[in-house]
């Protein structure tokens, strides 16, 4: 089976062209190939295939084999893959995901896609739709106790659930210790992605992320969008921000007039291989 390893800001996945390949048990396959010691090594598996509703379909599995509805870094790499490998010659495409159809604008240089802007759609902050168990409709700076400490979280869904918390120092924060406890807290019936953020100014935030089913990753596109939306809701930033992550920077803009979030960032191929 042929595959391609790609990443968006270090958030890396194994991509398989399912126009040509067939994977019968993708969940088990994702666990096997994601192992960084005994497999290819990745944050998960992305399958690219035909769609009856869009130009392409993206199917995604985390490193632990659980299915994911959406991945901002992953979908940018899908855009690069389908253009660079000749599956399309269009620079504006649509991709079907489990959280809806996403329009992509591909930025091409020297016949290769360097960056992609994704229309991530409308953020959802109703507690039931995220989902987060709460008596309130919106989760804005709501207290939650994790490992004996009270955090204040803002809940956002960008097709998958996010809890955004603000800390004084992002880079020295014990994400690997706190993240898994957050993820499995009983208030999150579908588990949760956690963004640990620091606001630098009205146009810049720093962020590290703990992703459900994977652990800490170098970047999370939907998480960056959730952090941007949260920062606007809390009147900490303007509608357009630069989000600095371990793997680099993303531009996120929440157009509140039309209630849509736009994310722009790079996509890169690491290597092609045969398994």
The number of distinct β-strands equals: 18
Share of residues in strands: 35-45%
Tell me the domain tally. 2
CATH superfamily of the largest domain: Diaminopimelate Epimerase, Chain A, domain 1
- Helical content band: 10-25%
How would you classify the helix and strand content by structural class? Answer: alpha+beta
Radius of gyration: 18 Å
* Mean pLDDT across residues: 97
| Top-tier CATH class of the largest domain | Alpha Beta
User: How widely separated are the two ends?
Assistant: 5 Å
Count the DSSP helices: 4
User: Would you identify the CATH architecture of the largest domain?
Assistant: Roll
The string of secondary-structure elements, in order, is: EEHEEEHEEEEEEHEEEHEEEE
Largest sheet descriptor: 18 strands, mixed
CATH-derived topology of the largest domain = Diaminopimelate Epimerase, Chain A, domain 1
List segments where confidence is low: pLDDT < 50 over at least 5 consecutive residues.
Answer: none
What global shape is seen? globular
Task: Report on the architecture of this protein.
The chain has 275 residues and is α+β, with helices and mostly antiparallel strands. The chain has 2 domains: 128 residues, Diaminopimelate Epimerase, Chain A, domain 1 (Roll); 132 residues, Diaminopimelate Epimerase, Chain A, domain 1, CATH 3.10.310. The chain is 16% helix and 45% strand. It is globular. 44% of the residues are buried. The model has no long low-confidence stretch (mean pLDDT 97). It is found in: Cytoplasm. This is Diaminopimelate epimerase. Keywords: Amino-acid biosynthesis, Cytoplasm, Isomerase, Lysine biosynthesis.
